[in-house]
User: What shape does this take?
Amino acid sequence: MVLGEGHQVGWVERGLDGGDGWVAVYAGYFLGDAATQQAALRATAQEAARTVHQAYLEDL
Assistant: This one.
């Protein structure tokens, strides 16, 4: 669970690609590359959480 201003704004999940990558979920959507429509994989849960938090700050 990723918090923003005290409430949940997203979460991270591992292994959705069948591997060890972490994906960021914000507002119910996987964050990724708009051109390829693929979720962006992160090496760690912390990196994925930072991605969610950045999306929240930028109000994507």
